[in-house]
Design brief:
Layout (H helix, E strand, L loop, with lengths): L1 H24 L4 H13 L4 E3 L1 E17 L2 E5 L4 E6 L6 E2 L4 E5 L2 H36 L5 H33 L2 E3 L4 E6 L6 E2 L4 E6 L4 E8 L3 H7 L2 E5 L4 E4 L2 E9 L4 E7 L12 E17 L4 E3 L2 E7 L5 E5 L1 E5 L4 E6 L6 E3 L2 H9 L2
Antiparallel strand pairs: 1-22, 2-11, 2-16, 3-10, 4-6, 4-9, 5-8, 6-7, 8-10, 11-15, 12-13, 12-16, 14-15, 16-21, 17-18, 18-19, 18-22, 20-21
Helix pairs in contact: 3-4
């Protein structure tokens, strides 16, 4: 009897579980199903129109960034390095102390020079007094003219000795100042060649720095294109590593040419407020040589997968469809030229990944 009761109870529990599953996972009402199908369509894709626009026709050339003001600070005296205050990447102001060299030897040399000057000044005072007395004695006929001439010669010799020793003392003081190395201008430390405690010798490099507010881009272009570049004298610089496009301040054509490559060097001065760009960085110079009408599409709409370049074209109902395109030159940081694949006025999705997910939904 007890066993039959347990079986009936188990059957009732199973039936309740099946009913619960049907309640949660059964077919949805028509209203709810329609709502789930239309939810993705309500999320409109951001899009922009492909349009014909007159843009600058440019000539592109590979270039490199360099610093107009860059220098290597070297030691001017011998001694052990006792202080290093900056390292690579540090920002240094003009006149700040960047390193110190042990100055005890040059301090002793300066002290010896000062002592010699004082001795010579005392001898000069004595020679001056002797010369003045000799003039008085000659007036009284107590000494000869030869004795006065000798006193005058001793006086002038003492003057010359003081002048020479003063110059030597100044040189010693100058050499002592070389023990403290200061920044010649405001800039950034790009290299450090010594460590604390190493021996410095005259001419040994200590630091290399550059002024980030004086940067320029240098490019080599064929001689046949120099005239067109000079006629417009307008250019932009693209720095692919940081994704920047920079308007240059001025263009200078170096008045010389390479006879082997038949190219001329052109310098493009960058603005002082450029950030994230350093000497040696690869850049691309875009020289304006005219104007042309081109079909442009937003760069954000371009989708690249392996060897396929495509965009998602959005129709009037907001539905995206994938279409392969062929691109031309880059117009600027926001637009790229389209040679084939889309027509003027068509709209393309600015979020191609999101558009692809929308087309993947059933």
């Amino acid at each position: 009897m007890r066993r039959r009761t347990l079986v009936i109870g188990f059957a009732a529990a199973a039936a309740a579980a099946v009913a619960l599953v049907v309640a949660f996972h059964g077919p949805k009402p028509p209203e709810q199903a329609a709502s789930s199908r239309t939810a993705p369509a309500e999320q409109a894709l951001k899009s922009a129109a492909v349009e014909m626009r007159e843009v600058d026709l440019d000539y592109s050339a590979e270039a490199v960034v360099e610093a107009v003001r860059q220098s290597t600070v070297s030691a001017q005296i011998a001694g052990r390095i006792v202080d290093l205050r900056f390292d690579v990447g540090d920002y240094v102001k003009k006149g700040e102390v960047i390193a110190r060299i042990d100055e005890r030897a040059v301090s002793q040399a300066e002290a010896a020079s000062v002592a010699q000057v004082r001795e010579a000044q005392a001898a000069l005072a004595n020679a001056r007094a002797q010369y003045e007395r000799s003039k008085q004695l000659l007036a009284q006929k107590f000494i000869s003219q030869a004795a006065l001439d000798q006193a005058e010669s001793n006086y002038k010799s003492a003057q010359a000795r003081v002048s020479a020793l003063l110059a030597g003392a100044g040189q010693a003081a100058t050499e002592r100042s070389f023990a403290t190395i200061v920044a010649p201008y405001t800039g950034v430390v790009s290299a450090r060649y010594v460590e604390l405690g190493e021996m410095a010798t005259p001419g040994k490099p200590l630091f290399t720095g550059f002024d980030p507010s004086t940067l320029r881009v240098v490019a080599n272009v064929p001689q046949t294109d120099v005239a067109a570049i000079q006629a417009v004298s307008k250019a932009r610089v693209e720095v692919p590593s940081v994704g920047k496009w920079i308007d240059v301040k001025s263009i200078v054509v170096v008045p010389s040419a390479d006879p082997r490559t038949h190219t001329s060097r052109i310098r493009l001065e960058l603005p002082a407020d450029v950030r994230g760009v350093y000497p040696g960085v690869y850049a691309r110079a875009h020289f304006v040589v005219g104007r042309a009408l081109k079909l442009l599409a937003p760069r954000a709409a371009i989708l690249r997968r392996s060897e396929v370049t495509a965009v998602y074209v959005v129709d009037d109902k907001g539905a995206p469809s994938l279409r392969q395109v062929r691109l031309g030159e880059t117009a600027d940081e926001n637009y790229v030229e389209v040679l084939a694949g889309v027509e003027p006025g068509e709209r393309v999705a600015l979020e191609p990944v999101k558009a692809g997910m929308a087309t993947a939904r059933p």
